[in-house]
Design a protein that fits this description.
Elements: E1 6-8, H1 17-32, E2 40-43, H2 45-53, H3 60-77, E3 90-96, E4 106-110, H4 116-124, H5 127-144, H6 150-164, H7 174-192, H8 200-214, H9 218-226, E5 235-241, E6 252-257, E7 269-274, H10 278-283, E8 289-290, H11 294-297, H12 299-316, E9 320-327, E10 330-338, H13 343-355, H14 361-367, H15 370-373, E11 380-381, E12 389-392, E13 394-397, E14 400-406, H16 409-417, E15 422-426, H17 434-439, E16 442-445, H18 453-461, E17 464-467, E18 473-475, E19 480-483, E20 486-489, E21 493-497, E22 502-505, E23 510-511, H19 517-529, E24 533-537, H20 541-549, E25 555-559, H21 561-564, H22 570-578, H23 582-606, E26 611-615, H24 628-640, H25 646-661, H26 673-678, H27 680-699, E27 705-710, H28 716-737, E28 744-749, H29 752-756, H30 758-762, E29 767-770, H31 772-780, H32 784-790, H33 792-797, H34 811-828, E30 833-836, H35 844-853, E31 857-861, H36 865-883
Helix pairs in contact: 4-5, 5-7, 6-7, 13-14, 13-19, 19-36, 20-23, 22-23, 23-27, 24-25, 27-28, 35-36
Bound molecules: phosphoenolpyruvate and magnesium ion.
């Protein structure tokens, strides 16, 4: 740490954001570039950290440096702090490393007191302005530093306005403001038992301290949490000569973006107010005018501002958000920073800046946050609308959807057929609800986590979904949802935002996803750069087609169980599971086979020429059967009503089977390749359907490269046995059809034992695909649904874990296993193909890790393919930046 804690603006530069904060660094940069910036100095973020380290005390060393800087400011401005003829007045503003707009405190007009206000009145020949400024200062200082609520001050102004019979502050005179000031000073005396500080140096040190303290106010803490800004950075403080936009009609203030932050269009976008201070623009007391009007009202200022704003944009190579003030016909720039923008604007601006020759393609690629791209790939809520949020659940599948509440899947389907938009609301969904999910605009459940049935299916379909929304008390019998005092009935309209987890009352206007030409362009640049291939997780031809449109280079995971969940197939699957004899089972399998074959053919056609990875059945069989509790209720009802018919006998038999298949811990139970070992006929049927589809697709002129994937392998012997089975079926089909074809057989690595014995396993595998969802569950020993619903948020809040490991890969633990398995697998088989098909395959930080580990591809849901393409390019570029 340096001993220098205070920097005059000319002493800094834009590269010192960590030390001077974003605002301080930019003020320094602009000063040095010769822009009209009011003089000032910056107290460093290190000084803020010292303040906290020293038990919230400003050190003498710091204050000495502050007073030296103040002397220099006095010389520069030819004004004096506390002087009653020519007083120096300053603003004191926070400025953290990352912009946190409006989260911390600011004090304007500091330096005013009972004497200097007279000087200001004489100097400006405007007593009304001077007294108005003083009362603003007392109010702001008292609020921020002394903690007195604004209400007590506003009350005084309102009372006086009433007495004078006026409605606007602007109608109050200099004398009125003097009266207000008198009352304000009394309030301070009463509330703090001390007079308002008259010594400007005391005002300054207290203001600096208050800004330091505001780093830890509640809203700043929340903002940092949401935006993942570290808590230990501290804020800088900028002390700057005041310039006044409220000195008359030749003064004013405003804010402008160099491009439209909503669309990205190249046009000056902003607002201004004549005869006003910055806070008036923000406070909404007066309605600001569009910046274009400045052209008529102050033509030369407008011209100068246009010039300076394009200069700043070129200098920073990015769209700027600029605050300016005009004091008696002279333009000042108070602040510039990279403007916040929508995803759409971010992409357009980056691509346009490249074509304007202002930044390189690589810079454009690095500048876009892949997470923000999600907004562009799903319908979303119009950001200009105020929302009536009634509940919050887990943001399970992004996008937004509006519709009327429906509690039953069949009904959801019927209503949709009639052209209505519905939201399916259920305690949880099961495979039997799939048609309702397909029909609905979105899904809302009160139970279940991010991998619950509803969540996984909705994500695959790119449908909005909120899960685990526990505030909902769903009464299925009366078709009502109760949320606190609010009751929502069937048919009422709601909107769900699957990106934030918010449930909103009523219908909210949605905006369609927009794959602009600029976005396509950016992704093509990403493709030129990246090394990692990007595939998609897709289980049907429609999703496969969508994935290809989004640039997928193959299918990395086809979860074949989803094919079993189609509504017309569930009864056949149940027949297969419940069969009492081989014949019955074979009959069910022979009905399923052609259905799966057609699905495979559709996927092969959509992916003509690209690899398609088919995973054999993974979930436990009871997932395809009705819920055990529901059956018990049904049966009890039948018995109670004495309907001892064939129906109740069947239900009883069904319940018996369901009970037999019940597992204590299905996540670690009878699933994946374990099913393949105990019920080989199911896997055989799947492989047969797959190879027949290969043959027929080949005959139709489609180029197919199938990869057969075995899930949940933990021991090489499992893979060995199942590999043998696949080869046997392959030989049989080739013989029967007389068509030869190539294929590979590989395994998922999603059990720690598989990673630990990867060298052995590689002997039996043509490829590894890391199932990071299960690998995270099994490495941590967390069951995802339970963890996310019960304790994971506490872990993340208390920083026991930096992130939810099901979203961002745990590199130290799960990542080590991946690294180890990749090295061991390739030791046995040089160049062994490795990929990732867990959800981390579409997450930027995890993608960086997969790139660094040397994997060949990532695979994610179709809607995340563009995000993965961009992240993979960034991973490559970040590494070249590190090397240089
Ligand atoms: C995984 O475990 O990462 C995986 C892709 O399989 P699933 O999510 O279907 O269990
Ligand atoms: Mg898995």
């Amino acid at each position: 740490m340096s001993t220098k804690k205070v920097y005059l603006f000319p002493e800094g530069s834009k590269d010192q954001k960590n030390l001077l904060g974003g605002k301080g660094a930019n003020l320094a940069e602009m000063t040095n570039a010769g822009l009209p910036v009011p003089a000032g100095f910056t107290i460093t973020t290190e000084a803020c950290l010292d303040y906290y380290r020293d038990g919230e005390l400003l050190s003498d060393v710091l204050m000495e440096q502050v007073y030296t800087a103040l002397d220099q400011l006095e010389q520069q401005t030819q004004k004096q702090f506390g002087n009653d003829v020519n007083p120096l007045l300053v603003s004191v503003r926070s400025g953290s490393v990352f912009s946190m707009p409006g989260m911390m405190d600011t004090i304007l007009n500091l330096g005013l007191n009972d004497k200097t206000v007279v000087g200001l009145a004489n100097l400006t020949r405007n007593p009304r302005f001077a007294y108005d400024s003083y009362r603003r200062f007392i109010q702001m200082f008292s609020n921020v530093v002394l903690g007195i609520d604004h209400y007590f001050f506003e009350e005084v102004i309102d009372g006086l306005k009433e007495k004078r019979g006026v409605s606007e502050d602007t109608a109050l005179s200099a004398e009125d403001w003097q009266e207000v000031i008198g009352r304000y000073l009394e309030i301070v005396q009463t509330k703090t038992n001390a007079p308002f500080p008259q010594d400007p140096k005391v005002q300054l040190s207290q203001a600096i301290e208050a800004v330091f303290r505001s780093w830890n106010n509640a809203r700043a803490k929340v903002y940092r949490k949401i935006n993942k800004i570290p808590d230990d950075l501290g804020t800088a403080v900028n002390v700057q000569l005041m310039v006044f936009g409220n000195l008359g009609d030749d003064s004013g203030t405003g804010v402008a973006f160099t491009r439209n932050p909503s669309t990205g269009e190249k046009e000056l976008y902003g607002e201004f107010l004549i005869n006003a201070q910055g806070e008036d623009v923000v406070a909404g007391v007066r309605t600001p005018k569009p910046i274009a009007d400045l052209k008529e009202q102050m033509p030369s200022i407008y011209k100068k501002f246009v010039e300076l704003s394009s200069l700043l944009e070129v200098h920073y190579g990015d769209m700027q958000d600029i605050e300016f003030t005009v004091e008696r016909g002279k333009l000042y720039i108070l602040q510039t920073r990279s403007g916040k923008r929508t995803a759409q604007a971010a992409v357009k601006i980056a691509v346009d800046l490249v074509s304007e020759g202002k930044i390189s393609k690589e810079e454009a690629l690095l500048r876009i946050d892949p997470d923000q791209m999600d907004q562009m790939l799903h319908p979303r809520i119009d950001p200009n609308v105020t929302l009536q949020v009634i509940a919050k659940g887990l943001p399970a599948s992004p996008g937004a959807a509006s519709g009327s509440v429906i509690f039953d899947a069949d009904e959801a389907e019927k209503m949709t057929e009639k052209g209505q938009k519905v939201i399916l609301v259920r305690p949880e969904t099961t495979p039997e609800d799939i048609h309702g999910i397909l029909a609905a605009q979105g899904i809302l459940t009160s139970r279940g986590g991010m991998t619950s049935h509803a969540a996984v299916v909705a994500r695959g379909m790119g449908k909005a979904c909120i899960c685990g929304c526990e505030q909902l008390k769903i009464d299925l019998r009366n078709e009502l949802v109760v949320i606190g005092n609010l009751t929502i009935a069937k048919g009422d309209h709601i909107t769900i935002d699957g990106s934030s987890g918010q449930v909103i009352q009523g219908t909210v206007p949605l905006i369609d996803p927009n794959l602009s030409t600029e976005f396509e362009q950016l992704l093509l640049w990403a493709d030129e750069v990246r090394r990692l291939k990007v595939r998609a997780n897709a289980d049907n031809p429609v999703d496969a087609k969508k994935a290809r449109e989004f640039g997928a280079e193959g299918i990395g995971l086809c979860r074949t169980e989803h094919m079993f969940m189609e509504p017309d197939r569930v009864p056949i699957v149940q027949q297969m599971i419940l069969a009492d004899n081989e014949e019955e089972q074979q009959s069910a399998l022979s009905k399923l086979l052609p259905m799966q074959k057609e699905d495979f053919k559709g996927i092969f056609a959509a992916m003509d020429g690209l690899p398609v990875n088919i995973r054999l059945l993974d979930p436990p069989l009871h997932e395809f059967l009705p819920n055990m509790e529901d059956l018990v209720v049904e049966l009890t009802k039948m018995q109670y009503e004495n309907t001892n018919t064939q129906e109740s006998v069947t239900t009883e038999a069904l319940l018996k089977k369901v009970r037999a298949l019940h597992e204590f811990n299905p996540m670690l139970g009878h699933r994946g390749c374990r099913l393949g070992m105990t019920n080989p006929e199911i896997y055989q049927m799947q492989v047969e359907a797959l190879f027949l589809a290969v043959v027929e697709s080949k005959q139709a002129g489609i180029t197919v490269s199938p990869e057969v994937m075995i899930p949940l392998v933990g021991h090489v012997q499992e893979l060995k046995a199942l590999r043998r089975m696949v080869i046997a079926v392959g030989e049989k089909i080739q013989e029967e059809t007389g068509v030869s074809f190539d294929y590979t057989i590989g395994t998922m690595i999603e059990i720690p034992r598989a990673a630990l014995t990867a060298e052995e396993i590689a002997e039996q595998a043509d490829f590894f695909s890391f199932g990071t969802n299960d690998l995270t569950q099994t490495t941590f020993g967390f069951s995802r649904d339970d963890a996310e619903g019960k304790f994971l948020h506490t872990y993340v809040d208390q920083k026991v874990l930096p992130e939810n490991p099901f979203i961002v890969l745990d590199q130290a633990g799960v990542g080590s296993l991946i690294k180890m398995a990749t090295v061991a697998g390739r030791k046995k088989k040089e160049g062994l193909k490795t990929g990732v098909c867990g959800e981390h395959g579409g997450e930027k930080n995890s993608i960086q890790f997969f790139h660094d580990t040397g994997l060949d591809y990532v695979s994610c849901s179709a809607f995340r393919v563009p995000i993965a393409r961009l992240s993979a390019a960034q991973a490559q570029l970040n590494n070249s930046v590190k090397k240089n």
